[in-house]
Amino acid sequence: MKVANASKTNQNALLRKKQGPGYFLKRDWQLYFLVLIPLSFVIVFKYLPMTGLVIAFKDYKIAKGFWGSEWVGLQIFQDIFSKPDFAPAVRNTLLLNILDLCFSFTMPILLALLLNEVKSVRFKRINQTLLYLPHFLSWVIIGAIAYQLLSEGGGVINNLIELMGGTRVPFLQEDTNWLISYLAIGVWQSMGWGTIIYLAAMSGINPEMYEAATVDGAGRWRKVWNITVPSIRATIVTLLIMNLGKVMEGSFERIFALQNKATTEYTTTIPVLVYRWGIESGNFSRATALGLFQSVIGIILVITADRVAKKLGEDGIL
Amino acid sequence: MRASTIRPAPRNRERLDIWDLLIRFVLIVVSLVCLLPFLHVVSKSLSSDSFVIANKVFLWPQGFTIEAYKKIFADASILRSLYISVIVTVLFTILGMILTICAAYPLSRAQFKGRRVITFIFLFTMYFSGGIIPDYMNINNLGLMDTIWSLVLPLSFSAFNLLIMKTSLTHGIPVSLEESARIDGAGHFRILFSIVLPLSKPIMATLALFYAVGRWNAYQDALFYIKHETSLRPLQLKLYYLVIQASESFQLEATSVSLSNPEVLKASVVVFATLPILCVYPFVQKYFVQGVMLGAVKE
């Protein structure tokens, strides 16, 4: 058996030697031709910009150009770390995203558990259709709707509050209120859509497990807790890891659509600062260095979270 | 608590206990929270100014009028933005699909040598990128600033969509079918066009929708790349300047004294920009759910 295997590998090795890259190129030239199209796209629009990262280590002057500018080592990084905007931007990025993770991540799980308990297909379908709706709207539209609903002057919620004898609340015009509104709008936009993946995982649960539990006298919540929740644990962990990597990112579009001049306390985040330094003020080196800092921390977070998940016996994503 | 029967008799409606009612109640409330904000904005857009100013509009239009919509359709710059959005979305979706198919088909073939390396090259872009400024400089260097192509080309390749398509092609197309075609003398192009693509219609529809809705809704790149050429602003960016920043005014004709309040106009612009999505929504939703499920297969 062993001998046969060995001779087979030898044969394969011989074959492989005879069939060099030229052989495969000739045989599958059509495949290589096809893949060349997206490959060139990725090189031009994804990899070429990566070479631009070197200006984080250069004192980039447009007049001197990309190659003519002087190397300055880590000076740009020292420079950004000492900027007065830097610390608040990091704090805000972490604050907004971690809070967002707490609420926007858990709501879909709770909703999915509730939806899974509904037996009526029609009721479930109508509900899901309504719940998914906000996901399809752009952040500009959501921002516009938010102002129509929450503004202090003519917002409908404030109109209702006043009608019931309360005083108007500056939901979007005061820092702490803005933060709460920001989080609530995030939950609103993503909660329904987030249920899909959990519902998919729940649909894969063997119904016999529920039947067996029923025979053993388990009640409804006991079944949810002991069967449904453990069955979606792997999905939860995977999504959590993926989201942890985004803790340093945060959506530029979302903040930009919801910010206003009255609330600057929490809106200065890393992506916003990159935009301000780079595109508004034209300090490319500083903005690039900040962006690089952000991506590196993001990658470290993903890898760490993945390692921890694997240590805890989950699959991980990498 | 009722023991659920294994095969409930049809038509014999299951009795709802207190928990069922409570769950349904919670779900109805949450669904309404998703729906009512729209209803409010729609009502506002169809109401007359005086009622909106008096804060009397809630979920039903007061003093029904379509004056605001007439204004929008009379505004050339808004229609122009709609046109740009449509063109960009169509071009983007077609290009995105071509790139995805061209990458996914070879990478799903076991005989394709070097596919591990090439797959890595594609997927690496999911985890690491140059970032906003290097991307911006790249577009600038390529001379794409203030052109429609700055909105079509850079994002048209999506590693995530490639992953979904590749998974689907690897598992969805029976190898025997391809082998028999090969014996009949078909080349890769022939196999791709005559066998693989016709069999992958559902996944292609899903991804096309992913591309189209993503493009339709994005405004960040337009904010960066369309600086001076105001005639190239897509609808979302136009909306941003018009409604969020309020830095642009509606080009109202001199006669329009009746619409002094911008709130109604803002509301109707929001509805106007939402309508395309709302029209295709029921159709889109079904395919999107499928797509997300396919993405979940990997896990």
Automatic annotation (TrEMBL), chain A:
Concerning InterPro entries, the annotation shows:
MetI-like, MetI-like_sf, UgpAE/MalFG_permease
Q: What is the lineage of its organism?
A: Bacteria, Bacillati, Bacillota, Bacilli, Bacillales
Q: Where are the transmembrane segments?
A: 31-48, 94-118, 130-150, 179-203, 284-303
Q: Which Gene3D superfamilies match?
A: MetI-like
* Keywords assigned: Cell membrane, Membrane, Transmembrane, Transmembrane helix, Transport
Where does the source fall among the domains of life? Bacteria
The protein, known as: Sugar ABC transporter ATPase
Protein's cellular compartments: Cell membrane
What membrane topology is given? Multi-pass membrane protein
Domain ABC transmembrane type-1: start-end pairs: 90-305
This chain's source organism reads Paenibacillus borealis
Which protein family is it in?
Belongs to the binding-protein-dependent transport system permease family.
One GO-annotated biological process of the protein: transmembrane transport
Give GO cellular component annotations, separated by semicolons: plasma membrane
